[in-house]
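ugh ok fine here u go
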Amino acid sequence: MAVNVQFFHPHPLFVLLSNTFKEAAQGQDAAYLSILGAVSVCGFIYAFFGYRVYKWVLVLSGVLLGLVLTSHIIDLVQIPPSNRTQVQVVLGVILSIVGGIAAPRLFHLFTFALGGGSLVLAIGPLVKVVPPTYSWLVLVVGFAAGGFFAFLLMRTTLIVATSIAGSYILCTALFALGVRFEIIMDNFNFLMFYAVWFLLGLFAISSQLQQK
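structure:
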């Protein structure tokens, strides 16, 4: 059984997120910069204070899932353009509130998903060297192992997981800003992204481990 691993690889995921931010801004430069600024702040908090604010992160995750679900519903359902904005706002508020309330109650599920997802993201570049027939198995085992360790070593695993995920989010926003202001080329060498992500991740892990 072969599986498309591109969405588990940091590079295609970066491209996907960058395009998503641009689409969300709808061509408005101020909106695009605001989105990247907000993502940068969220990534920084998640990377350097993820364990301490974990429950609030769950609330935020629930809110974001509500907004994403709203976007998909609006795209699937045929709504007259005159009412589209109003429906999107109302539905977004409702689903965000529901998501924000429900997410903390699914603490263990989110913890397992965070541990597993972070490990899959970290080993994503290595999956390409595995024969396609077994790539899905590597991802499943990696996800299960990350989730298991999230329960076994709760504090340490959550610190590492939030540092990895938060650093990736922060790097994505910073590199997108770099491309926007032409500090780096649009087709920059992604090894540079890996280097910054690795250093940020180590710094974030060290910072969180020293926090009481």
